[in-house]
Amino acid sequence: MRTSLAIILTVAAPALADEIGYEELAARLGSAVPTGAGVPIVQVEANESAGLSYRPNGSEPDFAGKSFTLMSGASANSGHATFVGKNLYGQYGIAKGITQISCFDANNWLSSYLRLGQGQSALPLAPTNGSKLFNCSWIGSAGVNTDNEILRRADYAMQRDGTLVIAGVNNGAGGAVPALMGSSFNGISVGLLNGNHSYGAPPAGIDGAGRQKPELVAPGEFTSFSTPVVSACSAVLYQFANELPYSLNVNRRSGVAVKASLLAGATHGQAWSNGAPQSGASRGVATTPIDPVVGFGTVNIDRAHRILSADEAIGQATASAAISGPSVGLAAWEYEVISSTTFERHWRIDVPGTADVRVALTWNRNPASSQFTGSAPILQNNDIKLQRIVNGQPVSMVGDAGVSLFGSGNVVSQSAVDNVEHLSIDDLAPGSYLLSVNRVTTAGFATIAALAWIVDVTAVPGDLNGDGVVNGADLGLLLSNWGGSGIGDLSGDGVVDGADLGLLISAWS
Fold first, then answer.
1. Cα 171-78-63 angle, rounded to 5 deg
2. Where are the beta strands (DSSP E) in 176-322?
3. Which helix (H) or strand (E) holds 64?
4. In 341-381, which ranges are E strands?
5. How confident is the model at residue 16 (pLDDT cuts 50, 70, 90)?
6. Which of 365, 359, 377, 376 has the alpha carbon at shortest distance from 338?
7. pLDDT tens-digit profile of 351-399?
8. Is 417 helix (H, G, I), strand (E, B) or coil?
9. What is the pTM of this model?
10. Cα dist. 24→33, 209, 305 in Å?
């Protein structure tokens, strides 16, 4: 097996808390902000020298109190591993509460944990020291057939154990996406906030031709150091999901639920686009779910936490049941087992004002051990869509039907090759909507999936002072301008009168 580091360590800039939503998270939660405490992790590193050199330098002052278990034998200190650690659980990271780090040399991890090349009866081992999180800030290849076996074994382990492999892509804009480990289905591959990383489809011959990589980007000088930023965010989510009262729902701490929350919570830059037509008959339909360079966008721990800390919203088996049932929250998630045959789920979301909406669906590839080698396992094909509810019926917003209902984005996501789908909708009009997941084909094994969404209300009708609610303060403003124009003129007829008062009362919070 041949591996290669994504970078050679020089000097890297620390991850900025405000770029990933950490300042908002800390302000919202105060002293209760998760730190990754109690979350054991695995740090996998490519060897840095002629002898074994894969461990962080435990004598670093900000590593005090941390336990490094060397899983691949005696090791010299690695500058690369040390700086990865600093961006994950050290001075630059947001998961400083992590104290248990199991360290592997990449080659040994492939042979001893994934059990590469040992036959279909040699399954990957149970999670190392109970860890749910593997950070892989390295790239490599051992040839197409071996690479595919590695990726299938990793996907098998993630499906079986609810774990996540967070892996960096290569540095350099537009270069080839590496086979290992950024081309897995069930993990998360990470690029750079500035786009100076490889992107696009996995290499020729690797399972899943045409898929989009990476899924997320994060700040850092190199992908080796943006990858642990995403791992740190994952550790923060795993921590609170393991603690009461959140731990009462075991689905919350599954890898696929953590992944969906991170994907849906990502923030988009102004140039973000998944190529959905913004005019014509196909307006609002995306066949490539994410941006070709930055994926879902920049990881945002505050938004991801808002999603995963919300109650699980159980979907309905039919559209009619969802429409007639209760509305779900504006930030929520659901864990599902998608059957090997047909599947659909539906949720009604009542949007109180003009809003930006982000929805992420992700499902695991579920290879059998007999498929570690040979032909590629078949991947499920699932789509998501958002429809307007009119007179108790779902109505498509594709094409001209959606022009007056959302400003831009996509209300349908229907990739035929990815195991993620994404709705990105800006300026959605207030009203009731039906969110739906549908299995398109019956090929492929049953697998686990998670849907996550967040609705950011940007303007509430009647909210005259901009505090997000309609109450007595807004009524006072309207009455103070009675008979005038401007503030309080909700109807837009040029005068503040009884018509505006009626609109304000109807929107009362």
1. 105
2. 188-192, 216-218, 285-286
3. none
4. 344-351, 354-363
5. low
6. 365
7. 988 999 999 999 999 999 999 999 999 999 999 999 999 999 999 999 9
8. coil
9. 0.91
10. 10, 38, 11
Ordered domains of the chain (ranges, CATH) = 35-241 (3.40.50.200), 274-459 (2.60.120.380), 472-506 (no CATH)
Residue 204, CA distances (Å) to 177, 240, 250, 484 in order:
10, 40, 38, 67
Show Cβ contacts of residue 98 under 8 Å, excluding neighbours closer than 6 positions. Answer: 35, 36, 37, 39, 40, 41, 66, 88, 89, 235
Phi-psi region of 85 (alpha: psi -120 to 50; beta: other; left: phi over 0): alpha
The token pair at 452 is 């996550």
Segment 180-230, tens digit of pLDDT: 999 999 999 999 999 999 999 999 999 999 999 999 999 999 999 999 999
Give tens-digit pLDDT for 37-57: 999 999 999 998 878 999 999
Separation CA 359–CA 368 (nearest Å): 29
Residue 250's contacts (CB-CB under 8 Å, 6 or more residues apart) are none
DSSP 8-state symbol, 112: I
Which of 507, 326, 284 is closest to 414 using CA atoms? 284
With 0-12 / 13-18 / 19 or more C-beta atoms within 10 angstroms meaning exposed / middle / buried, residue 503 is: middle
**CA distances for 346 relative to 260, 322, 324, 326, 393, angstroms:** 17, 6, 11, 12, 13
Q: What angle do CA 219, 222, 225 make, to 5 degrees?
A: 65
